[in-house]
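Dear colleague,

As promised, here are the two records you asked about, laid out in our usual form so they can be pasted straight into your sheet.

NAME FIELD: protein one
SEQUENCE, THEN STRUCTURE:
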Amino acid sequence: MGTPAAQAQDTAAEVPAILGTGDIGRDDYLPDFSYAGYEYGVAPIPHVAREIAVAEYGAVPDDGIDDSAAIQRALAAAHALTGPVRVQFAPGRYILSDILWIERSGIVVAGMGSGEGGTELYMPRPLNQMDDDGTLDELRQYLVQYDKRERQRDANLDVLFSEWSWSGGFIWTRFPGGRHATYLDEYDPPIETVATIRSGARGTREIEVVDPAALAVGDVLQIHWHNRAGENGPLIASIYGEDREGFPVGDRHWMLPDRPLVRQATRIEAIAGTRVTIADPLLHDVSDALPAYFAKWDHISDVGIQDLAFVFPPSPYFGHHNEAGFNAIYFTGVHNGWISNLRIENADSGVLTDDLAAVTIADVVTEGDHPAHYAVHMGNVHNVLVTGNEVFNPTVHTFSFNTQATRSVYHRSTGWEQPTLDQHAGANHQNLYDDMTVHVRAAAGDDGEGSSYELFKAGGAGYWVPGHGRYNTVWNLSVVVESGAAPGETVTLVENSGGPDARLVGTHGNRPLAIDYEPAPYIEGLNQRQLAVPSLLDFQLRRR
C-alpha cells in the first residue's frame, strides 16, 4: 500500500498505472465513468425558452400569503401543454405547503437564482402533514409488515421508521402511476420483456440480440440481470468477485429471483441485423451463464429543476430514521434530466433520488444547523452525475451511493462538516468519488498509535451487505484534517463496512494518511496528489 509521506506530494508527471490501456479484461479493470450525466455526459443542460409565469396564476412573492394553490395552477397549465415548457418564478419568497408533482416530460421548474436576489421557496410545514396521493402507501405497509423501527434504548426511542426518511420531496417527479421504489413483492407488476440478449461483453456497447424486431433506434429501455442461481450464482460473482472469503453477501441478493438484481437503463443507438449498439457500456457480461434482456421502462425525460433556494424553518432533530419530511426534491423515474443551481437550508434531506438514468445534479449547496439524513443522495440510479455539491450542514450520509446505484459519480464536491463517503449496501457497484474534498476532525486512537477518521462510514440493512460491489473508485481525494492530529501525525481513514475490489488512487491530505479498508483495495499514489489526471471523469471524457 506504500508508506505515508510527511505530507501530500504532487505527482504531475506520471499517469496512474491503473489507467493502463483500457483493456476491459484486465484484473485491475476500471469502468468508464464518463457516461454519467445528462445525455450520457456529452451534451450541456438545455435552455427551455417557452415560459409559463407563476405570476399569471396568482403567485405573488413576498406578500406573506401561501402560494401553493397558485403554483399548482401554473404547473397544471404546463402539464396541459405539449412540448418543453418552463414554469418560471420571479425573485422573492414563495410560501409552499403542498407537493408539486411533475408527471410529464419536458417540464422545467425554474427560479431566478439560488442566492441573494433570487427565488426562495419557503416550506413552513413538513411532508408528514401533506397528502402524498397514496404514493408511499406500499412503503408504509412494508415498514409495519417488517417492523422496521428505530430503536435507541438510551434515548427511550422505539418507533417505526419514518417514510420520509429516504423518500418524498416538495418537488416530486414521477411517471404517472409509476412505482419507482419497490418494497413488497406482492405488488411487483409483470415485467414486459422487449428483446432477449444473446451475448455482450462487460465494458462494451455492442450486443447481440435473439430478435431485434421489437427494438427501434431511440428506444430507452432497461437491461435486466436476475440472480436465479442462488448465493453462489454467476451474477453474484460478477458483482462481488469469485473470492468472497471473509465478507458475507446478504440474502436479499437471492431471495427475490424474479426481481432484477441489476438494472441498466440505456438507449438504443444503432441496429444492424441482430447487432445492437447501446448508449453506454454494459455493466456485466451477457451469456448463457449470465442471461439478460431488454425490458420496458416507464419514465419521463427532459425534466429540470433549477435556480432556486429551498428554505425550511429551524426545527428539532428527532434522530435517524425519524425525520418529519423537510425534504426539498424527490427525483424519480427520469431519463435525461437535471437539477442545477440550488441552495437548500435546514433540510431533513436535500435531494433524494430513485429510478433515474442519465441525470446531472450540479451546483447544489446544502446548509444550516439542522442535521440531515442525506444531502444529495443516489439510490437505484444509473449514470447519474453529481458535480459541484457543497455540503456545509451536518449529515448522517453525506455523499451516498445507495442501494442498486451503478456507474454514478460524485465529482468535485466538498463536505465541510464531518462528512462521510457512504457506500450504503445493496448491490451498489462501479461508482466513483472523483476529485473530492473532505474537511474532518480526527479522533485520537485509544491505543496511542495515532488518530483516525471513519470516512467510509456506510449504512444499509444487513440483508444487503456488503457495503459495495466491485470497482467502486475513489480518485484524487483531498482530506483536510482541521483538528485532532498534530503536524506530521498519521491519520488513518477507516472503513468498517466496505466491499471487494475498491480502487483508491491519489488519496492525499494535509497530514500523512493511512488506509484501513477491508477487503483490501487497490491503492495507488497514497499521500500523492494526482496532478497528471486530477479528475478521472474528465480524463475519460477526453479519451472518448
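NAME FIELD: protein two
SEQUENCE, THEN STRUCTURE:
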Amino acid sequence: MTAPAPSVRATSPARPNLLLAAILLGVVVVPTGVSGTGVALPHIAADLGSTPSLLQWVVNGFNLTFAVFSLVAGSIADHLGRRRGLVLGGALFAGAAVLSALAPSLILLDIGRALAGVGAAIIFACSGALLAITFSGAAAARAFALFGTAAGVGLGLGPTISSTAIALVGWSGIFWFNAVVIAVSAALVIASNVHDTPAQTGGRLDYPGAVAFAASLTLVIAAVVQSDSWGWDSPATLGMLVAGVAVFGAFIRIELTTDHPLLDLSLLRSARLVGLLAVPVAGAVGFVTLLTYYPTFLSTVWELGTGVVGLLMLIMTVPVIVGPLIAGALHTRGVPVWVILGGSVLLFVAGAAGLTLVGTEENIGIIVAPFLLLGLGFGLGVGLVDGQAIGSVAPERSGMVSGLVSTVRLGSEALVVAVFASALTAGVGGEVRDRLPDSLGAGTREGIVDKVVTGEIGGVDRTVDTGLLRAAFADGFTPLLWVLAALGVVLTVLVSLLLRRPVAAPAALPVDDAPGVDAALAFDHEEIRQ
C-alpha cells in the first residue's frame, strides 16, 4: 500500500502591485494631517475653545511626533520588518483618528493628534523602505514617482478634503475620513501577501539613541510652540531650548560610540545627501507654512467661507500632484538633479514675494500665479528626494535613510510651522492691539486678539470694526512673507551648491552600485559634475 503523499498547503502568490496600491493609498491620507487640519482650526476653535497654544498643538502635536518617531520607525523597520511595521502603523493611525474625531476637548484632541503622528511616522518610514526592497529597475523608478505623486495628492488635496468633510459632518469628518481610508490601506497590505526579511546584521535596536533623539527634538519643538504663551525670553522657554540642545549633543555622542547606531552619522559626510535633505527644509519654509496658515488669511482677511477657501487652495495644491511626474520626466531626460531641485526652491521665493501684493480686498486673480509657483516648487521635490536618498544606500539601510528623510521633512515642518505660528501670533496680535480702542478692557482686548489670531473673526463683538481687524491681520502677515522669501534665496544657493559637489567618499555612501535601484534613481558621477 502506497503511503499517501503529504499534503502541501498552497500559499497565495505575492501581489506587489496590490502592495503598491495600498502604500499609495496610505501615503495619500497621511499628509492630509499636515495640510488639511489648518482649514479646520477656526471650526475646532468655535467648538472646543480658542486658546491659541492648545490650538497650535492640534497641528504641531502631529508634526512633532511624526518627526520624532520617523527615525526610530525607520530603524525598527530594518530590524523587525517593514510589512509588519506598516500594518502596525496603520492600526495606530486609524485608532488615533477615531480618538481625535470623538475628542470632547482640545487636550484630548491634541493627544489624539500626537498618537496619529506616531502612526504616520511608522507608515512613511516603512512604505519607502518596503518599496525599495520590493521593486527594482524601471519598476522602482515608477513606484517612487507614484509615491511622490501620492504624497503630493494628499498634501495638495488636504485642504479641499477637509473643507468638504467639514461642510458635510463638521470638523470631526476629516478624522473619520482618515480612519476609514487608512484601515482599508492596512487591509490591502495584508492581502498583498508581500513579505520582507528583517536585516540579520543590524544588531540590537539603539534604544538609548532613540530616547535621546526623541527627547531632544521634543524639548526644542515644545519650547518653540510654547514660546507664544511663555515668551521667548522666559526661563521656561530658554531652559527647554538649552536642555534640548544638550540632549541632542548626548544623542550625537551615543551614535558615535555605539556599535549599532540609530543613525549612521557617516551618511552625512555626503554633501549630496545633505543637499537632498535641505530640499524638504526649504519646502517647510516656503510651502508648508503657507499651506497651513494661508487658509486662515483668506477666511479672516477676505472673509471667505470654508468651501471657497478649499477651492482656492486647489490652485496651490494641484501643481503638487503633477510636480513629481514633471521632475521624473526631466530627470529621465538628463536634466541634472541640482537644476530641478535648486529651481524648485527658487519657485518658493517667487511665490512668497508675489503674495506680498495681496491686499484686504478680495482679488482672486492676484493669488493665482503665486499659488501655482508655490505648488509646483514643492511638487518638483516630492518623490525625487525620497527616491534619490533611499536609492543611494544599500537595501539594509533603506529604512534608516527613509526614516532620516521623513525626520528632516517633518522635523523641519514642525519647527518652521511652530516658529511661523508664534511669529504670526506676535505680529498680528501686535497690530490688533495697536488698533483697538483704549476704552476696551484688558480682558476684552486680549479676547479679541485671540479670536483674530486663530481666524475666528466672526466671533468678535460687532461693535468693533472688522475692517480694522482684517487690515491688522494682513499687515501682520505680510512681513512674514518677505522673511520666507529671504530664507528661500539662502536655501536655493545652498541646495544648488551641495548638489553640484562631487561625492567625497563613495565607499561611505554607495551610489552606482546600490542594488535593486534603477539608474534613474541612483546618482551618476558624470551627472554630479554637471
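A couple of things worth noting about protein two: Residues 1-10, 503-530 have pLDDT under 50 and may be disordered. The CA atoms of residues 223 and 237 lie 5 Å apart.

Best,
R.
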